[in-house]
Amino acid sequence: MSKRPLILVTNDDGINAPGIRSLIQVMNEIGDVVVVAPDSAQSGMGHAITINSTLHLDKISNDSEKQQEYSCTGTPADCVKLAINEILERRPDLCVSGINHGSNSSINVIYSGTMSAAIEAGIEGIPAIGFSLLDYNYNADFEAAKYFAKKITKTVLKNSLPKDVVLNVNIPKLSKKDIKGIKVCRQARANWQEEFDKRKTPQGRDYYWLTGKFVNLDKGQDTDEWALNNGFVSVVPIQFDLTAHHSIQYLNTLNLDD
Amino acid sequence: MSKRPLILVTNDDGINAPGIRSLIQVMNEIGDVVVVAPDSAQSGMGHAITINSTLHLDKISNDSEKQQEYSCTGTPADCVKLAINEILERRPDLCVSGINHGSNSSINVIYSGTMSAAIEAGIEGIPAIGFSLLDYNYNADFEAAKYFAKKITKTVLKNSLPKDVVLNVNIPKLSKKDIKGIKVCRQARANWQEEFDKRKTPQGRDYYWLTGKFVNLDKGQDTDEWALNNGFVSVVPIQFDLTAHHSIQYLNTLNLDD
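Above: the input entities. Below: the structure tokens describing the complete assembly.
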């Protein structure tokens, strides 16, 4: 690439989260960076978009930094749509989302605002990567994650990605020297066993907090869960064609039309 | 099935929407019905879950009806989690979501609260179907949709569904006699060309409304868009393994680890 690539950076933990600040540092070393990110945390937002409400964008002054930044009242998917349609003067060469504070491996991809931003970019035909670190701590150490984010981003910019595929990258909570490498994986079959914490308001009304225990149902050694549990960075190619193509033939035997 | 099936009904347009009232009528003819649905419209919520806030459930009195009903302050996915973990005394035999006021065909499945409820049930191992009518009108005619919802539900209860597959059913805005039949389809490749409507608040601050134009990029005659445009009900099998398995081999040629 002769000129510097244009890189859109977003996330779901909000524009001030340490994870996105780390990702911006990395991307400034690679290209020209524009940040459009939620003004507050959006975890668990899935692929939500804002239809029944208005959206605000605020340009942030950040004199000491190279990147342009905008804070948005919407969801991660809204940020990508606004960036492409209202802010960027040309199509970005890449969209990166994260670095998320916490895992987006296996079934978590479904609930992930981080990945919804990457998927939204993918739908628009823009190469996209979501990065997540397996550490929920606000003050997590992002050094290893930054190293691998840079490495993977450079490879993707050099080679591009298959059509309609975005990457879900998860980084284990280990120091760089203890990480064994990068593995391309499939999404593990897992789910959450919910345990609702039922409480009473001071007025005596019941309410619930959603909590739960993550259960990996998948013993395969080609999954993201296996890779992460064994000290590897996991890279799962993600698609937004949700068709279960393998089941079409069976469904046609049911004669739904009879 | 010797005893009547237990059917969980939910939606994303809210518990009072005509679409879910139509679906409840149909399901009461087939099984024992428990309704757990959002207390207000949740369109565009994608697969959002409520992590950073509390959830309330209210039992609704509905003396004239057979079903039990609960209204929930959360998202469609929250409703399914609460129903399974806190309300139902046994696992439901089926979860149905809808009937949505408006299409959830092709890429809309990604943004759909209706389908997120069905997918959430699928992750829990419960057969699930989302129904949507291609009519946004609050006072839409649900008669044809009810007919096809009943037909498809009975077939699914009789035959079950492949493991980890849920159905996305869309019904064209036509009278029953003008609908040509039911087609099993794949999800069309489509997207939205956003057109943000930029306005100023009375105080002079910019804000945006998200609007857009749906663009079908897919000329295939095996897609849901083709079926719907040609007078058929579309049935797309949906999976929540988002892995782009076909691209793993290519990604391994990139030597991400070097």
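Note for the figure: The first strand of chain A starts at residue 6 and ends at 10.
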